[in-house]
Queue: 2 jobs
Job 1
Amino acid sequence: MTGDASQAPPTSLAHRVPDLGALELLLAVARHGSLGRAARDLGITQPAASSRVRSMERRLGVALLDRSPRGSRLTGAGALVTDWARRIVEAAEAFDAGAQALRDRRDSRLRVAASMTIAEYLLPGWLIALRAERPDTAVSLLAGNSAAVAHRLVTGEADLGFVEGLSIPEGLDGTVIAHDRLVVVVAPGHPWARRRTPLPPGELAATPLILREHGSGTRQVLDAALAVHGGLAQPLLELSSTTAVKAAAESGAGPCVLSELALGEELSARRLIRIPVAGVRLRRQLRAVWPTGHRPTGPARDLLALTARDT
């Protein structure tokens, strides 16, 4: 069987057409009438410029320049190629301007979705630092439980999210940005405040607690930690914000379990008392998350970098 050149697969356009750098060099030679001056204009050496022109001539199969001691002059074919090159470079400049406009539009806003603890106690500092780096970026913050954060990212309502659950929600990628501990607290008048020994996990599980709602990262971690101890009792109250849970516990309504990040002021002032718990792990990871396969860019990338700097 004999070979047939007509049956050979065509090479791609990228292999047949010179790259933009070579075309820009040709235009510079046309402007300056000298390969050396064109090379200086583009910040490359003259040998590199000569090599680039020879490579372009081999690729196109025509001579582009007549070289002489007095300079470099375009051949007839070179003049035609230069005219075509000018149109390609102008189109590339328009493409670049359009891409920059898209980046500017993307960078003009950042939509962040965060679970309550992160939104209240960590994000403010990160957003202040981001403001110093990107003063022209308008930031909107949507606070909710971890399930709501995941939904907003998957549906395109947010660019970057922060969650507190046990794992990365389905449809998202993420990275650990911090660690947190859940603590049991009661008002000073509660009987547990006078305990001399740590609370057994079975007693914690059996006690009606003031809890965050289903879907919150705090609730997920507590459910998982106490599952082997009989699971959580029917809640005393279910509330949708950390502030409401703290207020109910301070009023003496009952014990609650919240992030250590959220309790600094109340513990220092002894408005709430920390109750040690034996034999149960109440630590968790805090994560930044984003839609699978879409690593953060622009201001979302910068905010993610700030969280890493802070850990």
Note: Residues 1-6 have pLDDT under 50 and may be disordered.
Job 2
Amino acid sequence: MTQADTIPEPFPHNQEALLALGYALRDAGYGFTTVTPVTHAIVNARSCNAEAHTLRDVFGWSRPFRAELLPGPILALMREAGALVEDGNRLRASVRFSSLDGELFAHSVYPPSATDAVFFGPDTMRFVSAVLAHLEQRKTPLRRAVDLGCGSGAAGICIAKRSPGAEVLLVDINHAALRAARVNARLAGTDGVEARHSDMLRDVEGSFDLIVSNPPFMIDPAARAYRHGGGSLGAGLPLAVVEQAIRRLAPGGTVVLFTGAAIVAGTDPFRDAVAEACARAGLAWTYREFDPDAYGEELANAGYAEVERLALVVLTVTRP
């Protein structure tokens, strides 16, 4: 049995112990840049990487390790958090920690195969960069913001760090994501951030000055929540986010959406649908391709038979 074949472990439930583990890793100088699952698989498949030899191997690369590798206090915190599982005659962490914006973020281990996996990867970094670019040019004060489908909470937490006094909500339907987001908010020192369970914005009241979202956009045969967009060519959830978000914008408010778009015969059906929705609502919008060709390996999926490329896009919508 390979690591990719193992049954995914649930995200740890003991948030206080997980927070203490995050502090311990930070104090130890730990840092890790999470790569795509494809890159992760290639690097881990190298014979020299069959076993962990460093903290980064354990908490970043999700490699099995021997108990004597880790300092006793870190191993004890892993046990207390429920973040330690047996892997034959070795052990394995059931949580990863990745670096972004000078902080550590807890999220699901590799491979992220559970239906409720807490995603964090290169797209998270791209999404946050788009959000921070908006904040840098924003001219009006930010009073209320929401990170919709927050996952690890990275975008909302980065907003809160730059917007003292603002109310920032982290919203997700995935309870594992909310556990991770709460830990990550405290680890970053943004204790005023609130993580709340909601299906889209249905259980959240009021309007917002800023709504940010990085919804799933893939056609995923396993229908994993963090990855499967549904609808036509995976655009179901991104379009639903746009439709809900534009109804909840305060005057002068903005939506920043980072997602993917399936390009068919040189046309972008997602962009066309966005243009129609914004025209109906009388809202200003901009749209740009962040990366014109990402996730090319996904095109082998039969659901993409008519798709020539998957682009990563940034949509901003503003209520005048």
Note: The longest helix spans residues 122-137.
